[in-house]
Design a protein that fits this description.
Serine Threonine Protein Phosphatase 5, Tetratricopeptide repeat, 3 domains, alpha/beta, eight-stranded mixed sheet, 358 residues, Spore Coat Polysaccharide Biosynthesis Protein SpsA, Chain A, 14 helices, two-stranded antiparallel sheet
């Protein structure tokens, strides 16, 4: 069985060798450069890589990725899409070879989308850009997805022991995402995923009224049935109302988010932050202690890493201190310290002990 890694890139010379060292376990490596001016294309050509370069008058990710598919050798069985700012943990190719079956069409794997400042994992989910050759194409101008070229159901396997890491160039502009998402929604207005992403992008860009409108439209689509994503839309609507100083609507939509997905930490966390910011410490403590009862973290892109770090314990310790319950405050600050070395936490701990000793 032969494996091919393929990618598109532009101006990513800083990642070339880390990426190549990671993906060189494959039988073939293919890269379509979309117009680099920093030497990326020339550096790639020096390596054992099938390379091509194509410049686009109007760039869309699905077109570029489909063009990169044409570089893949006909005898490749498994195709693995890996961007240059990503890299595999060693041994990934052999794990695919061991677990891929003739009936397998696609595979999911563990993907760390970002890392926290202390080096711990941030957003982690199961990605699915491993697929059988000549069986899929890419669709949508941005946040593109693999779409089968055949009808009917197909077999997808979970490669939980395959780890891909992402370390993006934070200085690289993503300004084209919003117009591409607007184009994507205009092409497929009933696509619930596109609607959610567009609403979120409006929020990121400070266009809060537009965000609320599009996220509410997402919630009204017949195909918008995934509770996790619906919960996220409700949380984002709440954030937008908060930015617009409509705290009544903000609280309303946070409560709706909890009702939509009571098994997720995120809506409880944001409700706790809402109460904390309004100095309603008892309500904040109730929301956050309810959140901590949820011990299973769903591996999807919506999972918020701050819900699983030191921050909930930190805020709870402050809430109980404000309520003059320093013994419980001490318990929670110790839990926060176990997850973070931030000096302020130790200072808070000393203060709580002083209050207990009075």
């Amino acid at each position: 069985m032969k494996i091919c890694v393929y990618a598109i890139c532009k101006n990513e010379i800083k990642f070339v060798h880390r990426w190549y060292n990671s993906v060189s376990e494959a039988d073939y490596v293919c890269v379509l450069d979309t117009g680099s001016t920093d030497g990326t294309y020339e550096e790639l050509k020096k390596l054992n890589i099938i390379t091509a370069q194509k410049r686009y008058d109007f760039f869309r990710f699905d077109v570029a990725r489909n063009d990169s598919l044409t570089l893949i050798q006909d005898d490749a069985d498994v195709c693995v899409c890996v961007d240059l700012d990503e890299f595999f943990a060693p041994g990934w190719a052999e794990k695919i070879r061991q677990q891929w079956k003739p009936s397998t069409m696609r595979a999911r794997y563990r993907y760390t989308w970002n890392f926290n400042p202390d080096g711990s994992e941030g957003v982690v989910f199961m990605a699915d850009k491993i697929h059988a050759n000549k069986k899929f194409v890419w669709t949508h101008p941005v946040h593109e997805v693999l779409t089968p070229t055949f009808n009917g159901e197909y077999e997808t396997i979970d490669l939980t022991d395959v780890q891909l890491n992402h370390m993006a160039d934070i200085n690289k502009s993503r300004s084209n995402y919003l117009p591409l998402l607007e184009l994507s929604v205009s092409e497929c207005p009933e696509d619930d995923r596109n609607a959610h992403y567009l609403g979120r992008e409006y929020m990121f860009n400070g266009q809060y009224e537009k965000a609320i409108g599009e996220l509410k439209r997402h919630l009204g689509l017949k195909t918008a049935t995934w509770a996790d994503e619906r919960c996220a839309s409700l949380r984002f609507i709440a954030r937008c109302y908060g930015e617009l100083k409509n705290t009544k609507k903000q609280k309303e939509f946070l409560l709706k988010a909890i009702l939509e997905a009571p098994y997720l930490r995120e809506p409880y966390f944001e409700l706790g932050i809402y109460f904390y910011n309004h100095k309603k410490y008892l309500q904040a403590a109730v929301a956050l202690t309810e959140m901590l009862k949820i011990t299973t973290r769903n591996l999807n892109y919506i999972s918020a890493p701050e819900c699983w770090g030191s921050l909930p314990y930190d805020i709870l310790s402050v809430c109980f201190a404000e309520l003059k319950n320093y013994r419980v405050a001490l318990t929670y600050v110790d839990l926060a310290i176990a997850k973070s070395s931030e000096p302020r936490l130790k200072q808070n701990r000393e203060f709580f002990i002083e209050q207990l000793n009075k």
